[in-house]
Amino acid sequence: MKRFVLEVSGDFACFTRPEMKVERVSYEVITPSAARAVFEAILWKPVVRWHVRRIEVLEPVKWINLRRNEVGARISTRNVTAAMNGGGPLALHVEDERQQRAGLFLRDVAYRLHADLEVVSEREGPAVKYFEMFERRAAKGQCVNQPYLGCREFAADFRLATEEGKPPIPEDRELGWMLYDLDYSDRANPAPRFFNAALRGGVVEVPEWESGEVRG
Fold first, then answer.
1. Among 28, 87, 165, 166, which residue's CB has the most CB atoms within a 10 Å radius?
2. Which residues lie below 8 Å from residue 15, measured CB to CB, with a gap of 6+?
3. Are 190 and 183 in contact (CB under 8 A)?
4. pLDDT per position as a tens digit, 133-145
5. 100: pLDDT strictly greater than 80
6. Distance in angstroms (rounded) separating the CA atoms of residues 202 and 172
7. What is the DSSP secondary structure assignment for residue 187, as one 8-state letter?
8. What tens digit of pLDDT does each residue of 39-67 get?
């Protein structure tokens, strides 16, 4: 296992609170699951696991209200099956399903993310191979898919942090219960897990997944 650090930033971000059923309202800080997704966008393999350990907030928390057009439906499994069996074209007509929704998003965000890269099996090569692969890709700005900040339209800029950079904001606040990640022990019914997050000196310390601080 090896620790890596990324600095990520973007114009907008939305780390949606799951208790908000209709409108999108963001957490005040990036969630561990969203941070993990940034690392996985740069390097993901079946034998690799990312464990987010620390989140540093580099810019003050700022908000913006936006209204966006969203699609309010999904293509059903039945329609997909019918199309695969020659039952006609597969399509979703946006004009018929468009909904306008308000959202409370973050703006002008920047974070320093610390995560451990674990190689769970060395059948496809030693762990150092994946450590070097990530360093090389992150240093060159390469990624499997464009990292994003909660929503895919909110693209994230990233760089490998190799030295001390901008200090975290000097702020303490309670963030309340925050989504940690989904528990896939039962793959048919993944369950959300939460932890009681707090900002201390601009830093959120992420507990171990197996610790008593992480609850369902």
1. 28
2. 26, 27, 29, 30, 31, 34, 106, 149, 150, 179
3. yes
4. 999 999 999 999 9
5. no
6. 6
7. T
8. 999 999 999 999 999 999 999 999 999 88
Distance, in Å, from the CA atom of 122 to the CA atom of 128, rounded to the nearest integer, reads 10
Helix (H, G, I), strand (E, B) or coil at 68: strand
Identify any residues that bridge with 101 across adjacent strands, giving them in sequence order: 68
Structure tokens at 138: 């992150």
- To the question of pTM greater than 0.90 for the whole model, the response is no
CB 161 within 8 A of CB 182: no
CA 25/CA 104 separation, integer angstroms: 5
Token readout for 134 is 């990530």
Concatenated DSSP letters of 98-123: EEEEEEEEEEEEEEEEEEEEEES--T
As its CATH architecture, domain 2-70+98-210 has 2-Layer Sandwich (3.30)
Tokens representing 176 are 């309340």
